Amino acid sequence: MTTAEFGTHNWGMVVDIDKCIGCNACVIACQAENNIPINTQDRVERARSISWIRVERYWEGDFPDAKARFIPIMCQHCENAPCEPVCPVYATYHNSEGMNIQVYNRCVGTRYCANGCPYIVRFFNYWEPVWPESLRNHLNPDVTVRSRGIMEKCSFCVHRIRHESRKARSEGHEILDGAVQTACSSACPTSALNFGNFNDPNSKVSKMRGDKRHYTLLDQFGTDPNVIYLAKIDADKKVGAGEAATHG
Amino acid sequence: MLVPVLAIGGLGVVAVIGVVAAFVITGWIGQPVPVLGFEQTFDQPINFPHTVHASLKQLDRIAADGQTMEGLGLDCTFCHRTVTTQANAGVPPVGFCVACHQVIGAEDNVELAILRDAADIVGDDGPSPVNWKRVHRLPDHVRFVHEPHIRYLTANPSVVTNSTDGVTEGPSGVCSTCHGNVAAMQQVEQVESLKMGQCVDCHRDNGAPTDCAACHY
User: Fold this and answer.
1) Which of B117, B119, B164, B204 has the most beta carbons within 10 angstroms of its beta carbon?
2) How confident is the model at residue A103 (pLDDT cuts 50, 70, 90)?
């Protein structure tokens, strides 16, 4: 075990807002990949829907010149996560790979973490998840089905990271840049979502992070997220850096 | 008047507390009490003898021709083919069994009759899978992958505990660490607790990650 050692990576994501077309493919991919229960109309109306990644839409400008803007929001995997210190049972913590981990079997369902999270990306299972009989064999066997009474959130597709690191170790090399793709980033048709290792200065995400358009969501809270956004380029305004940052 | 009633009630309470405490304590130490269906072994649909297939020793079993039988000494990976490459060890399909058992084994063997019926060699109700019962079952929130464990133990034989009938080479030599000497089991049973404490102890001793998300995700 000299290569692809655990803890030598800092996984993160760079979201290029300029490329996002708001197609919601990431949402569907995530839903299918991570065994997320179906958000029925009833659940959505009661604000109980679960969606590890969502595409928020907002409008810029007034009617004749209104422009639709999209921003995909998932767990930001903060280095200073507000959700972590409030958990009484250490069910959520920051691991050495730069990820905010949710341990389902430790969670006792206090929901403090969801109240602490400013990004609203943590979801509580108010019911036992059910799927129609026709979808019984469609569940992903690599992802735990979360039962009633526990919290869940974006895991950065940790099962895919584990799979790729095992593969790299058995083949005796480092995890190649781009080998690990989350469900959302592999589904994104415009490559707006990019996943990779920030510890590697030559990785795609590290280079993208150097872009002058970069910002993080709700920067004023000092959460230091591992998800970096690249601002929308607006031809009318010449440059849009910082514009989208005021929306959350 | 009340004294005898209270005494009997008190005895009942003590008895109930005793039974509950016994279960809690045994559960804490390792495995539940092997009564009331908590045994770590099951009657399988076919009484498959691992001894005949995997053992390297003389068996106390008489073959159809009156000779004493010797174990076949098959490697674990002969049947559990995906254990070195994938998460699951894999149970072979019926067709794999009858590749040998179409001709090997007496025609009047009751257990083999079930297998041959499942493979549609005898009977006329078509092929059907054998509903093997799982002996080593981990909770749903644990992701155990065989491949890296086999790889590590093969590279570090000093860590291997137990023994598979004296086999030290190849994948068969390492399975015994968690599964015990299956080659000597007429009916497979779980010999190690396979609880999280055991996993973490071994991971700690061997420098494997003890991060929660190494197994729980």
Assistant:
1) B164
2) very high
Q: Please report which helix (H) or strand (E) contains residue A72, including its range.
A: strand A67-73
CB B129 within 8 A of CB B93: yes
Point out which residues pair with B41 in neighbouring strands.
Answer: B189
pLDDT tens digits, one per residue of B161-211: 877 766 666 667 788 888 888 888 888 888 888 888 899 999 999 989 999
Q: How far apart are CA A15 and CA A214, in angstroms?
A: 9
Token pair belonging to B100: 């040998």
For the record, the structure tokens of A11 come out as: 């996984």
Token readout for B21 is 């405490």
Q: State the fold for domain A11-246.
A: Alpha-Beta Plaits (3.30.70)
Q: Can you tell me the distance from the alpha carbon of A196 to that of A204, in angstroms, rounded to the nearest whole number?
A: 7
CA distance A238 to chain B (A): 44
ipTM: 0.82
Judging contacts by C-beta atoms under 8 Å, the chain A residues touching residue B212 are 93, 95, 101, 103, 106
Asked if residue A43 lies in contact with residue A49, where contact means CB atoms within 8 angstroms, the answer is: yes
Contact check, Cβ <8 Å, B217/A144: yes
Which chain B residues contact residue A145 at CB under 8 A? 140
Q: How far is A10 from chain B (nearest CA, A)?
A: 14
CA distance B4 to chain A (A): 44
- Nearest CA-CA partner of B213 in A175, A80, A161, A215: A161
> What are the boundaries of each domain within chain A?
11-246
Are the Cβ atoms of A162 and B211 closer than 8 angstroms? no
Distance CA A188, CA A24 (A): 9
